[in-house]
């Protein structure tokens, strides 16, 4: 059984038995990344639509049909479990993924699901109202699922364009890689589908702003106003479109921070298992 190491935190890289391996297309990289991060079975139709949805159905299915043997030939026959209906990562395969190791070491992810985890923590200590205050502070409290999904669609469009044009370094620009798309876009959709659409806006808004930064730096001038208008609309929806509004929000943040820090002190005092170090 071949040993495969997959690096997703940064430029896509894969090794087989400690030797670098190059996959011939970005679609193959994205397919491998998606299967690695979502090891459950997936229908062929779902994968074909996900990766080749911009082509006719028959062509998309053919592209997937051609991609699967290429992956197995390049990385080992035992890497995938494939039948006529479904595809999944072989749970017995010797695949190491840096992103999964990072999450395991963190115990709880800290970016994508931070507001969901915060809500669970505050509700567990009888302070659910603090979570509502945080959502109001960020400007997410009034957003409907429909609004959030529109921003998710806009964010996906901006992400794809940024991947195409990005050359100038921007903050968190290392995330603007095609193989990271499932982690960015699909993860946001999963939060929305689970009923956490307001909490998902922290992630959606973040990658929308990052992608727009790359677009404003490197896309053709004719493309830039369209994406900037989306970010401007987001700021307006969040009530952060004027300096005065931002100043009011900052002042409110100080008040909420005091309440959160007080609760944190109480949690430490009342939880003997928490120790320094």
Task: Summarize the entry for a quick read.
It is built from eleven helices and seven strands. With 277 residues, it is of the alpha+beta class.
Describe this structure in words.
This protein folds into two domains: 3-101, Arc Repressor Mutant, subunit A, CATH 1.10.10.10; 108-264, no CATH class. 61% of the residues lie in helices and 9% in strands. It has eleven helices and seven strands. It has helices at residues 26-37, 44-52, 57-75, 98-106, 114-124, 128-138, 145-165, 181-193, 197-218, 224-237, 243-270, and strands spanning 3-7, 13-16, 19-21, 42-43, 80-82, 86-89, 94-97. A four-stranded mixed beta sheet has the order 3-2-1-7. Strands 4-6-5 form a three-stranded antiparallel beta sheet.
